[in-house]
Amino acid sequence: MGIEVEADGLTKSFGRHTVWRDVSLTLPAGEISVMLGPSGTGKTVFLKTLVGLVRPERGRVVINGVDIVSCRERQLYRTRRLMGVMFQDGALFGSMNLYDNIAFPLREHTRRNERQIRSIVEEKMAMVGLSGAESKLPGEISGGMRKRAGLARALVLDPEFILCDEPDSGLDPVRTAYLSQLLIDLNAQIDATILIVTHNIQMARTVPDNIGMLYRRQLVTFGPREVLLTSDEPVVAQFLNGRRSGPIGMSEEKDAAATAAEAMTEPDLDDVRGVVPQLTPTPGQPYRQAAARRQERVMRILHQLPPAAQQGILAGRHEVSHERTG
């Protein structure tokens, strides 16, 4: 099973600019979480902080019992071995074929021989649907294939915590749908904790167990997916519906007069808020153990959640039960 990741009181600034302050949340072990937020709100900085690439001014990041903010370099290195990162652009080496790109972490960080490396690389490439593409260069393949190659590379060290920085960036809606299903299937197979940073609302509505949102240097919310998907917060409603009218502007701040003027001129579009069914593993894949653990967890805190979120969770209980017995 994946590992629990706890962020406690994180504050990060660059010079006089505060990116976010006092961010606290817990990523439940083995579950899939999504972090949303307008551009420039520090989502990628938050991801880098969880990896230990960015050091906050205040707060802790506890992974597998180790606070990576204050630990020694050797402990940080060992803890990073538990992580796999899928970078936004794939971050593949252009002069290496896909096989060598994916094998790179194994050659750098383990003492496995080439026979063992080949077995692992072929297994991970098969998991992401890239069997037979080993000899291709990154410049010879599509953006979707590069994304999958980056994901395969993130998997070769068998991570317990996988971080995906805008995995849908540059992909068309169909390829994004395939990638969403792939993440669900991988979670069913390896039961790792997954954090996805994305702007894609369809992915955010259908993939995660939990959703958070960063806005105006704060964590607006983090919790079971049903809480954000049914939220009446103006910033949440605006972001989910992709509308101009609301507190989010072209620059992050917007005054009340601008908000009112935009509300008068914007077309009356359907509100997409509401809980839609979560994706389930492809037939033939294992049952996703995280779904059962999550159901038990949210039922314990059900009384603390808003009524609309409670209704969504209770309606979803049948879906989880059907998946488990199907």
Automatic annotation (TrEMBL):
<dbReference type="InterPro" id="IPR003593">
    <property type="entry name" value="AAA+_ATPase"/>
</dbReference>
<keyword id="KW-0067">ATP-binding</keyword>
<dbReference type="Pfam" id="PF00005">
    <property type="entry name" value="ABC_tran"/>
</dbReference>
<dbReference type="InterPro" id="IPR027417">
    <property type="entry name" value="P-loop_NTPase"/>
</dbReference>
<dbReference type="InterPro" id="IPR017871">
    <property type="entry name" value="ABC_transporter-like_CS"/>
</dbReference>
<keyword id="KW-0547">Nucleotide-binding</keyword>
<dbReference type="InterPro" id="IPR003439">
    <property type="entry name" value="ABC_transporter-like_ATP-bd"/>
</dbReference>
<dbReference type="GO" id="GO:0016887">
    <property type="term" value="F:ATP hydrolysis activity"/>
</dbReference>
<protein>
    <submittedName>
        <fullName>ABC transporter ATP-binding protein</fullName>
    </submittedName>
</protein>
<feature type="domain" description="ABC transporter">
    <location>
        <begin position="5"/>
        <end position="241"/>
    </location>
</feature>
<dbReference type="GO" id="GO:0005524">
    <property type="term" value="F:ATP binding"/>
</dbReference>
<keyword id="KW-0813">Transport</keyword>
